[in-house]
Records
---
Amino acid sequence: MSQPPGKKGPLVMIHAFKPPLEKDKDMVTRSWDKLKSAILKIFNEEAGELSFEELYRTGYNMVLHKHGDRLYQHVEDLLKERSQELCAKVETETDVTFLDGLKREWQDHKRSLRMVRDILMYMDRTFVKQNTKKPVYDMGVHLFCQHCVRAPGVKSRLITLLLSKIEEERNGNKVDRDLVKNSTQMLMEMGRDVFHDDFEVLFLKSSEEFYRIESENFINANGCPEYLQKVERRLQEEQDRVGACLSVDYNAGEGGIKQVVEHELIGRHMQTLIEKEGSGLVWLLENRKVDDLRRMFDLFSRIHQPPSPGQLSGLDLIENRMAEHVMVKGREIVGSGTDSDGQEAKVDHLKYVTDLLDLKDQYDSLIKDAFKSEKSFINKLHKTFECFINQNPRSPEYISLAMDNHLRGGKSQRTGAGQSEEQVEGMLEKALQMFRFLSEKDVFERYYKQHLAKRLLSDRSQSSDTEQKVIQMLKSECGYQFTAKLEGMFKDINTSKTVQEQYRNHLAQAGSADASTEGSVDLVAKVLTTGYWPTQQTVQCNMPQEIDRVCNVFKRFYLAQHNGRQLTWQVNMGNAEVTAKYDKPYRINMPTYQMVVLLLFADPSSSALKFTDIEEATKIPAPELKRVMQSLACAQYRLLTKDPKSKDVSPTDKFTYNSSFTHKMIKFKVSSIATSKETSEEVQASRNKINEDRNPQIDAAVVRVMKTRRVMEHNLLIAEVTKQLQNRFVPEPLVIKRRLEGLIDREFLQRQKGNMKVYEYLA
């Protein structure tokens, strides 16, 4: 078409109208007859002579001419008829050939459906999608399922034979696994719901019944280890069976065969297995059956949810029963601190702590090797130790005493032999594990300070480096404030060495007035800072004149260099080395009190003295003097004799110089009879002092909390103060309440008007 002159714009093409194609009224019938004949040949395996291109064009034309619905319906009817024919054929099979025959017909049917699908591909792409119908292949599978597999004469036989084959294999018989797998795969290909409704429900039910009967019979006839081994084998067999006999798409987990088998073999019997007499969990723990314990842990860990409401999961059962057993063992070790008569129980502190460490090592090892270092098991063990260790109020003292023994280089409780520095450090690290379980760490600190003081003052520490390492471990555990005084004690010892050297130089100076004062007495003084050391108010005993004279010389020297300071002699903390002549000269190291008493007998006129005479002459307190006399007259080195002879000392006893004393060693040490553990009276006195020391700490914690919060309810304040102090001790709520009343009286706090349970901070 030409464009008029002077006009610009796009050209428009106009085509002649095409008349509609004439419809062939017989085309649909001819086309379907052609397709039906071809499909039947495919079913009969005669497809070799067919032209698939021509057949595709035939199906294409039917859909193109709006006959897709008729074509789809014809195909559906034909496939339904074919499925019914195959059903009749399968029903004639015997039980021996049934599964194989069904498998064969299913495979042939799928192959035929794929060829039919290729012919009718255009219908699948257009008509089926537009009308949301099943594609040809899926429709064929569905019809085969409904009219063959689910037919009354096929379905029941199929499921019965499959379950029978599986049970035969569970009983140890050999079956054709591939045949079973092909059958279950067929059901899965027909749909997950078909597999579940027709097979899985009955399969799980029969499996549940099978394993319930088997497990009950086996657990009644065998011990726990044998049963666990049986279960382990069964679970592995069932896992292999699922892979070999069931569909590759089958999920054996949640709600599947795995859960059913685990519930029947493990879940229903967990409590019975744990409590089984002579082979249960306690027996396994006592006999360190690591392999069996690991097997129990692995199997029970499969039971994440309790078998029934109100019960515990598998690992919780093991964890709780182990904790109960450890609690019993721990209470046997720690006791309660008193015997059946209410008197203080006699305890070997070293054995006490060693037994605790052995128990801890034993269960640490079991948790690592058998329970895979499960965090919840470790936490449960720690809580259990914390519980029973704190049931004995003297645990802090015993732990400190055990550490004291190792730091002094004492013998091993297990071997009776000496220990290397590495062994000592190892034992101390383990002892500190027990320290972590203490709720009253301030009590431990008090005893440790006392024992450290004795080691430092008597030079009995095996290694200064080891002592410092313990201090560092305590600092990392509890902070600087916990060890500040302990570190101050070491500083005093180092400073005292310098002071002693200066004192020696002072005495050595030519013309020194004090140089001639010492005579036969060599004084080594350690100057201690009052706030660091566990000093006590002690009665000053009457020192021998020559000793008193030397002490005054040192006092003048020290105060001349440190104006304004005060010196108080702590006689009860000192020791002396005395040269005494019996059958031969001996060099005897002894506490200061023992030296004071022994020097009384150096006077020929005092060869025999009564207890009361010694008390009057020395002014040593009677309880302390009794222990002194026991160490001199009733212990290993009997430098004095006592009349009457007995281990106890009474005010009427008479003591004489033991001129017949002899010993193979020239140099030896006389120790105080004072027990390493405190007496009940001393314990009570220590407890009272500790409670007094806690009061300002509680006050400080309350003030810190209230200064931050300003206003706080009573119970919340109690909880917060307890939380702040729990690293040192756990205060009683009643004690905190009393301290709150005291702070109110001192106008740090006040109760809120209108609500007496709320406190307000006063700036």
---
Amino acid sequence: LLKFVHLLNSGLSPVPLKSISVTLSIREFVAGVSATLNYENKEEVPLETFFVFPMDDDSAVYSFEAVVDGKKIKAELQEKKKAHSIYESAISNRRQAFLLEEDKYSRDVFCCNVGNLNPGSKVALTLKYVQELPLEADGALRYVLPAVLNPRYRGSGSFEDSCLDMKTPIVPLEDLPYTFSMVATISSQHGIERIQSNCPFSPIEYLGEDKTSAQVSLAEGHKFDRDVELLIYYSEVHTPTVSVEMGQPKDNQDGFMKDPSAMVCFYPNIPEAPSPVICGEFVFLMDRSGSMQCPISKQDQSQLRIEAAKETLILLLKSLPLGCYFNVYGFGSSYEAFFPNSVKYSQQTMEEALKRVKLMQADLGGTEILTPLQIIYREPSIEGHPLQLFVFTDGEVTDTFNVINEVKRNRLRHRCFSFGIGEGASTSLIKGIARVTGGTSEFITGKDRMQFKALRALKRALQPAVDDVSVSWNLPRGLSAKMLSPEQTVLYKGQRLIVYALLSGTMPPAEATGEVDLKYTLQGKSFENKVTFALQPKPDDNFTIHRLAAKSFLQTKDMGFRDTPAKDKKDVLKISIDCGVISSQTAFIAVNKNLNKPVQGPLTRRDVPRPMLFGAALMMPQYEGCALPKAMSSCPLPTTQSTRTSHYKGTSYQQDVCRPCRPMVSKDLCALVFGDNHLVQLISLQNADGSWYLDENLAEILGKSLEDLLAAVPVKDADSSSWATVLALVWLHSNAKEMKGEWELLEKKARTWIHIHAG
């Protein structure tokens, strides 16, 4: 959150940010966060400062306040234009004022203005938010405190009113003048097994013998080179729950906060489908901007993003079912497609795609994702093969809402599975394009493997559709539930489902209960999950459930300051102000009325630098919209120069590219590109139907001579491919068992082939 705070102004002298402190409280799967910045004006003139910081897209920001020289100033949430008008009027009249707003073009970037800060004044700015924590595949709850705000690709259009347009000096991490601290308290009735982090933390301190509460602290010396991530493991996480929270009828007689709210958490027990889907059009959209040449993280031996992307594409291509259609797009400032249109998956098309993947480089410049998306959506649908879109990107675009709206307009014809690569990937972009289509989103940081997460998404995409999803309420007479969450149309195996509702009417006696029922069908069979709960609402001073419910509603209706439809803008504004959760249409504003006299002296601005992270140079404006400079290119292949025709916004131009100077056989090329990674080499040799050929390439990976393998065939005159495929699967189970999640789908395809052909 405030971790990668950029305090900005227009001069060269910094406004020293003394410290940033964060208090985190996690209860079950909800996080409450309070973040405070402490800084001081040591200049002899009054200052106007700005800071820009990243925020998770799911965060419901509900409070903002400033403490100036010991006096607290509480901000109010107002319509955005009105808030700006109040702020500008206060500044022109030499009054102190504070403004906090969501960026107009992206929900995961916030801006704060501090106006007329007196010489010698000390200011503490605090904002508070709540958010749901996502559930990982291994049962961990994942909390991320965004610390990295990368440069964002501007593309075409004007973004002068975006806070991302502010220019700041960039300095080495060791030159940052402020410190960062964080204390986290975790509690769960189910007990806490362990807590893990990508950053150094103090040993876990349990606050009771039953291990239902614990505390950890971030070690001193944290640098703003990575997001702060916590993985929390409870003893039990798959228990359905319903929480009912008391409303605020006296202060909100007609608004959102009047009635009690309910949060329902389901863990549908969706059975494994006996036969996966074998149809579909699978389109893979891969970021090939210059920053993809960077490591996924700063940890030792972290894989380059482009290399992880290539391995991931190979695994995906090998795991596709015969009979489907596919295509691969690369994008940067321009875009390229492997095929003019999606092609039927066969041995020939797979081999052609595989050759292109192995030669793929991070050589396409900036991050212009909108144009290739529009091209993909213009392609005619293939009857009987619904579109499944996989988007991989490490970059960000300035106009995030425009991209999300483009995906949303095409939501009825496809699902989008999105992947944010590396530190600082835009949570608004990655989560937004998946949310509006019923897909899923993943983030690859630290030691995460892109390969595993991508194959998990493909497995979900190959699941038969869960139909007729409905949530119904059985409540006492006189009480009704108004659903706030969007209608659920897609469910995946292992996925958690959270729904919100307002309970209106007469609350029954304390001992009364209600029931909520989730129903769905899978391959013609009906399933049902019921949860019974107590109807006695519990008070919460922070109104956590109300604000999470409001955030859920706003994510559905709020499509940005400019692009939210007029019919939705009124609802967004009302809900936002009623519940105090910021939106694209609102902003927090506070004016210091404690000052007895206007601020004296001319108002001055100062720049406070932000840290230089690896790869930031590759995303700077001078490299956007052009090919990666030759000095930064690191193609591993012997090359000669040629030109390629690239397409950008309907026009074509010539661009230098590298190509192999001589043809290479598959094994030579695979070894050159992937080195000693025998797993990827083995998978690269698999045929589209799931089988392997028995040849020198396979023998070398298995560590045997071809003659020894042929001599060991257990059945006389047996098909050598059957023997080769059995050996390849034995190798996978013996040498790569810990990576089963990455090769499970292609292994199933191979086993199916064996049962048919091996006799």
